[in-house]
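Q: What structure does this chain adopt?
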Amino acid sequence: MDTHQNTALTRALAEVPGPLPTSGVIHITLPHTDRFTVVGNHLAQHPDLSCTAVGIAVRIQSLPQGTEVSIKALAARCKEGEKRIAAALRELEAHGYLERFRDRLPGKKVITRTVFCNQPAALVHPRRPAAEAHPRPAASAPVRVPAVIPSAPVCVPAVIPVQAPAPEASVAPPVLLPPPAPSAPLFVPRVPPPTAPKTPRRPLPQPSELTPELDRAATAFLSDLHRHAPQFFLSEDDVRRLVPGVAAWLERAARPDAIRSALTDDPPQPLHRPAKLLTHRLTELLPPAPPGVDDLAALARPRVTVTPFQTCDDCDRAFRSPTPGHCRDCREVRAEHAEHAQAAA
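A:
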């Protein structure tokens, strides 16, 4: 059979100006007007990335904001399997194009965020503004700017020659212009590089004493968890590893139904590692220890001191006073009698 020919490409090839190369690729470049993505040569010709990683990066870069780009979602869109896609994503992470991290929403739901940067080198080496890299000359004296301007600030002032004025004007001496002051970078790296140290995870909570009763209760709770939430089907090793965390919750007077609700409500979809999610929630959502007897006694103490009632020694009237004695009226009468007696004397 004859080889199938693309007549449209043949006609376009005839319109390519100039002599055609004898070997290698021949580009027929047509301008895009819609549905296109700009891809830098630093990605398309990356020397250390595989072609699968470059293709996955271009596919992710062409997707709208908020599109699911997990391994399973990409496998549903692409012909590559999950293993090749996972290896390509690890390559992109190692070279700074991609980063995946856990984030907690206000409702205590933990999700995985994927951040893709189309030019990671700009985050590490920010560029200077064009207006500062090429300063404009003053309007009164046009100057000739050299063709090459150093990107780093120099220590000595640069001498920029002044253009010769009209014959009737006087010749001005050369103008010394100070070097431009260093400016703030255009791009501030907001995503840490892949080599940045990660915060160590908190250990699984432990009870003050893992008694046989606590051990049996925690084991029964974890073994029965899949009946209430089928996604949380645990192996025997997972149960033994998570028993101290559940025992710590039970020791703090948490009810089993409250623990089950805190651990299994609103899990991520799909849930690949239930034991890892349970470890995270047992650690981060640990309730406080119940108050002791002394703490409750302190709460029961009255905060306002009540002045007791006293009985007046003269009129038997009740009045409030920290010490026994006389009421206010009797004290005033006694004071008047004392004044009269002193005056009579």
